[in-house]
Amino acid sequence: MNLIKHQRTRAIGLLGAFVTGLVSTTALPVQAQQDTLGNTQFVFTEDTVVEFEVKETHGAYQSTLGIVNVTTGESTVLFRETKPFDSYGTGQRQPSDPGANNTGTPIDYLGTVQGGTIVNGRGEASGLAEYTFKAGNRYTMYLESVSVTGPTRRRVESVSVDATRFAGSLDGGQQGDTVGVRISWDDEGLPRPGKDTDFDDFVLEAGGYLAVTPCPPLR
User: Fold this and answer.
1) DSSP 170-193
2) N or C: which end of the chain has fewer CB atoms below 10 A?
3) For position 150, what pLDDT does the model report?
4) Which domain covers residue 190, as residue numbers?
């Protein structure tokens, strides 16, 4: 099994080393990416545990982010918001900058783990979550968003370039301010005139450092 951690200090084994399953050149059908994350369905050649870390959210919707095993139809929540943004319900005025990517700023309805907005799929106040990708299965990611003041409900998936942007690589370590793959979501995700394309509605990172997990001894 491969293990791809997000935090260097928590990784085990040989950090940054390539392992067999991540350099295979086995051909896959069209519209499937191998041993990486991106805007098509993705497939891993070995069972692979990937660690995710949510950075922040922006916007007035309340969202849930997860992974779909397309092969089995099973959905798993990685992170969810327990309220739309950190200062929700306080009456505090929210500065807005429509259409701008406000990642790293408090502008536009900031949501964080520290501010009590985001929990992981286990309901813990933690920005970390792990997911095991089973070898040969196909996967996508999804973002569901609802309005707490009305009937609006949206669902977008990572196969859409209008909904999700991927930057970096699972074994790339830290590049600038990004560790591993940065995954930036736009909760509208529709290609229409006048829509915002801020891609800051849900921002997380995946992987960064490969670790070789030892095999159990033969008996």
Assistant:
1) TT--EETTEESEEEEE-SS----T
2) C
3) 80
4) 2-212
pTM: 0.83
> Is 218 a domain residue?
no
For β-strands 41-43 and 32-34, DSSP reports them as parallel
* pLDDT beneath 70, residues of the chain: 7-32, 189-196, 212-219
CA distance 184 to 172: 17
pLDDT at residue 213, as a whole number? 56
Query: How many distinct helices (H) and strands (E) make up the chain?
Result: 0, 16
For residue 10, which phi and psi values (nearest 5 degrees)? Answer: -100, -5
Strands 164-168 and 181-185, by their bridges, are antiparallel
Find all residues with CB under 8 Å of 28, minimum gap 6, and list them.
Answer: 34, 43
What's the domain count of the chain?
A: 1
Please indicate, yes or no, if residue 72 is contained in any of the structural domains: yes
Alpha-carbon distances of 187 from 74, 132, 142, 163, 198, rounded to whole Å: 22, 25, 10, 6, 9
Between the alpha carbon of residue 206 and those of residues 76, 181, 184, 192, the distances in Å are 16, 5, 11, 29
> Is residue 137 included in any domain, yes or no?
yes
Q: What is the DSSP string of 132-147?
A: EEPTT-EEEEEEEEE-
Give the distance, in angstroms, between the CA of residue 140 and the centroid of all CA atoms in the same chain.
Answer: 10
Tokens 């799929």, located at residue? 121
* Assigned domain for 65 exists: yes
